[in-house]
Amino acid sequence: MKHRLRWPAALALLALLAPPAAIDRAAAQSSDAAAAAAAHAALSPAEWDAIQKTIGEQLAALRAGDAARAYTFASPGIRERFQDAPTFMRMVQDSYAPLLDARYTEFLEGAVIDGRTIQPLRLVLANDTVLVALYEMQRDETGRWRIAGCALAPSTLRST
105 and 55 in contact (C-beta within 8 Å)? Predict the structure, then answer.
């Protein structure tokens, strides 16, 4: 059975990415199911597929140790911050090891909250701990989706 990230949980997890004022606005704007559905509908299913493909391809490159390819999926701001592929790869290895080590991953329902496109990814680790990676996505100058940030958050679920 596929589990969906519910809007109150998505808003709580967004706290890791957004300033408090943005969260307050997002909470007010998505207080009912209709607002939540409208936020998700802001992007077509094909757009969500493209977002998930970008994340999936970056994960595959990271797990294969292909720093140069993984770096191509990062937004211009991320590339500017880390300057080169080896530095980017070291940061991922040091700060995002669960992305590399997860034994299972599953995309959850994405959302556009306060103008920010967030794609959650459930991670199940070897010890059955469950985390959620919240990817912030942005379009680059060519219109392609790029990863502008990622935050790891605990989940209330445990794998069995």
Answer: no
Measure the CA–CA gap between 58 and 66, rounded to whole angstroms: 9
* Gap between the Cα atoms of 21 and 67, Å rounded: 35
User: pLDDT-derived band of residue 158, with 50, 70 and 90 as boundaries?
Assistant: low
Where residue 128 falls (left for φ over 0; alpha for ψ -120 to 50; beta otherwise) is left
Question: How far apart are alpha carbons 123 and 25 in whole angstroms?
Answer: 28
> What is the C-alpha separation between 23 and 15, in angstroms, rounded?
7
Query: What CATH number labels 7-158?
Result: 3.10.450
**Could you tell me which residues come within 8 angstroms of residue 150 by beta carbon, excluding any fewer than 6 positions away?**
96, 99, 133, 134, 135, 136
What digits encode the pLDDT tens for the residues 23-43?
A: 454 444 445 555 555 555 689
Place of tokens 């070291």: 90
